[in-house]
Amino acid sequence: MAGIISFGAYVPVWRLGEATKDWGSKAERSVTNFDEDSLTMSVAAATDCLAGLDRKAVDGLYVASTTFPYEEKQAASTIATAADLGTSIFTADVGHSLRSGTIAVTMAMNAVKAGSGKRVLVTAADVRLGSPRSDVERNGGDGAAALLFGDTGEAATIEAQHAVTNEILDVWRAEGETTLRSWEDRFVFQEGYLKAVGQCVTELLKKSGLKMEQFDKVILSAPDARRHAEAVRLIKADPKKVQDPLFGKLGATGTAFALMQLVAALEEAKPDQCILVVNYGDGADALVVKTTARIADVQKLPRRGMKGFLASKKAIGDYADYLKWRGMYSADSGVRRPAASGPSPAALYREQAEVLRFQGVKCNKCSTVQYPPQRVCTICHEKDNFTPTRLSDRRSKLFTYSMDYIAGTPDVPLVISVIDFDIGGRAVLMMTDRDTKEVKIDMPLELTFRKLRLAGGIHNYYWKSMPVRG
Amino acid sequence: MAESIKDRVAVIGMGCTAFGERWDKNGEDLMVDAVYEALADAGIESKDIQAAWLGSQSTAATGQPLAQAVKLEYIPITRVENACATASDAFRNACYAVAAGVYDIVLAAGVEKLKDSGFTGLAGGGGGGTAVSPPTPPPVQFALAAQRYAHHYGMKPEDLKRALARIAVKNHHNGSLNPKAHFQREITIEQALSAPIIATPLGLFDCCGVSDGSAAAVITRPEIAKQLRSDYVLVKGLGLTCGGRQGTLQSQYDFVHFEENVTAAKQAYQQAGVKNPLKEIDHAEVHDCFSITELIICEDMGWAPRGKAPEYVMNGVFDLEGELAVNPDGGLKCFGHPIGASGVRMLYEVYKQLQGKAGPRQRKNPTLGLTHNLGGTPGSFTCAVTIVGGRD
Question: For A368-382, B115-129, B178-192, B310-324, which range has the lowest pLDDT when averaged over its residues?
Fold first, then answer.
């Protein structure tokens, strides 16, 4: 039978919160670092979801977001490559609506049911960028979720699904704009959010013959805590059974929000529990998810999940730093170094095993692991006799480092790290998500997929080192 | 069996411009100044030059700019580029042409015009290809070695900082005695220690000057040299090695020594017959692009035991009056570092020292002088070591 066979999440390490100067609120929200976007978060959630599983078994990838890096150029193909999936797979981007996450889930589920995919991965990610000091900025959050669907070994099944569509301009962002617009609050919530959610849940219950009291958990996407509470009252859900929407800890993460809550619920769920998931955006989606006896086994996979990622956090010191990261405030004080020119698409295409998959090679004669891939072994000079070796999910140790105080980075100093992998091999990488005080020789590190820069109209993605997240 | 280069090539004339922010001169102007000083010193004219080698990292892409500047008429000129060892390698190739006997008198020159770029320092990383390499401008690259050095030898970071500061103070002192140096003022240890950090742990005074400049050498065979002057200088050894990225591919690479230094020195010492370099070499111009580089070089060249260079530095072994004067002209730190000119600039100081013409920086009765260039990054360098001596 078709169902969810694994799940994972990603929450950036950074928080705007009480410890952030000029943020002006006790409530926390998650924030991507300057080198993260929806694509990099999708890679992180996908790898969390696939931890301990065979990545080459994945034969489909649906990527949901309203904040894709390109207008024309698929994100799913980049994510599939960075996650080191195979190339004979079906990839699709699902966008333009906050409902994209549950739409992608429905599509993946249908694909597995129809037999066109055996292991289909869904990721959903968003960076919620409101104007400075706006409600969207205050209540939003950045994050990602991933669900793996398959035809065997399911930890949860989708028992019922219903969707309604509602044509409305309540919250929107036109082509070329980066921050959200919305119409008057009362209109947005009465004619948009509450109306669609109410209609969708009523019709789902009628269609499935289920009653609200039969659900062990109720998950609702909502723009803020107040509307979330209103929706709970509207659909007459028992507040004790409502999944914590994480306002004040994470924030509303757009397309990913409902699915991140679902992942959090699955991390804690017992067998045979019924979960209602309601998502909103240009209408509403409702899903009935039911756990199986396999849930306990899948919970044991080596993922960080929502729990792990939420617990591992660092405070942004100053609200101005956040604005700098988002490019909304520039402290540029003159030319330091020439701006980097754009990469060559031909070179990026040729070197994608090195750049996106972060594969090194292992010499078949002397077993030395080398990164980047070499033609001739640095130790025994064996020629063209190597086995590609994925290093992106390996742990490493800091051999030496430097902090560059005049680098043109939004996050001074730029930390350059020389790292040695646990299976051998060395790499020189930038270090991100670091507190300069914690950087020490021999500290344990992991790799993370990040955006280096936008140059020549190309988003150049690569891997960086970072302190192992707790 | 290959023969040693020892005593087969003589330097008969040298020139070097003042290094610095030469807003008043372009690359051609600098070459004219350096080459004409060298020609006058050798007592020859430009028409006597039969072939030339021009070292330049980014100012000249071919041999032509040298002909265009000096008006050399239809002679072979080769542009040489080999990172920061560029000028030394131009000189080395010129030496081989003379030793082969295919030319009588040739010119080796180097030039760099860095200060038209509009920014301070050299660019690191960059575009082209996949453009994913981390931006590691030179201070960062050598800071990686400094961080590891203290860790490797269990030194307190502040003790290493002090030894590095002592190197900067020494080079500033030497530079203050040199009217052609980019920086000619003394500094104190405290100034060096409290300077802004560029790349942890390297501060402002741990970094060399970024300069414009040019230098040139006229060379020939000793039998011709004898007819032109009595105080010519003889090439004793030429070492050059290139790294193969071993340091970033191999986890056992330690970042506290540079194998290219060790191997290039071995070649040069062997050719020159040097057995005990600390005793036999009188003075050396080495590639102190950063203070930590000079420290490591002193160990790699065999002048201080591993881990002991900080102690030797603090004890003044490498001072102008020390056992082996390192960077008597102020070094890259104070004389300046126009990349493609530096190797020949170093030779200029050694040549003057051996002739007894180094003014207030003059060493007593020097016998052998050495120049050393290192270009690239820890893990993959080009290193050139040149040893020269006075005529027997």
Answer: B115-129
Query: Rounded to whole angstroms, how far apart are CA atoms B362 and B357?
Result: 7
CA distance B40 to A145: 76
Structural domains of chain A in order of their starting residue, each with its CATH number: 3-325 (3.40.47.10), 346-467 (no CATH)
Do B111 and B222 belong together in one domain? yes
Q: Which among A344, A371, A441 has CB closest to B128? A: A344
> What is the three-class DSSP state of A367?
coil
Interface ipTM: 0.90
Report d(CA B137, CA B35) in Å as an integer: 31
**B133 falls within a domain:** no
Please list the ranges in chain A whose pLDDT falls under 70.
Answer: 330-340
Closest in A347, A413, A424 to B129, CB measured: A347
The whole-angstrom separation of Cα B119 and Cα A149 is 53
Give the pLDDT score at A340.
Answer: 65
Is the residue at B360 inside a domain? yes
* Residue A427, C-beta contacts closer than 8 angstroms, at least 6 positions apart: A360, A371, A391, A396, A418, A419, A421, A465, B248
**B107 SS3 class:** strand
Q: CA B209, CA B180: separation in Å to the nearest integer?
A: 13
- Rounded to whole angstroms, the Cα distance separating A226 from A316 reads 26
Number of structural domains (chain B) is 2
Q: Is A358 exposed, middle or buried (0-12, 13-18, 19+ CB in 10 A)?
A: buried
Query: Same domain for B221 and B340?
Result: no
Which CATH number do you get for residue B56? 3.40.47.10
Q: Which strands sit side by side in the sheet containing A386-390, from one edge to the other?
A: A369-370, A359-363, A386-390
Q: Is residue B1 part of a domain?
A: no
Claim to verify: residue B217 and residue B356 sit in the same structural domain: no
From B139, which residue of chain A is nearest by alpha-carbon distance?
A: A404
Q: Is B116 at the interface with chain A, CB within 8 A?
A: no
Domain, as residue range, for B31: 10-116+212-233
> Given B233, B268, B294, which residue is the final one in a domain?
B233
Q: CB contact, 8 Å: B23 with chain A?
A: no
The structure tokens listed for B303 are 């002048």
Q: How many Cβ atoms from other residues are within 10 Å of residue B40's Cβ?
A: 12
Asked if A343 and B249 come within 8 Å (Cβ–Cβ), the reply is no
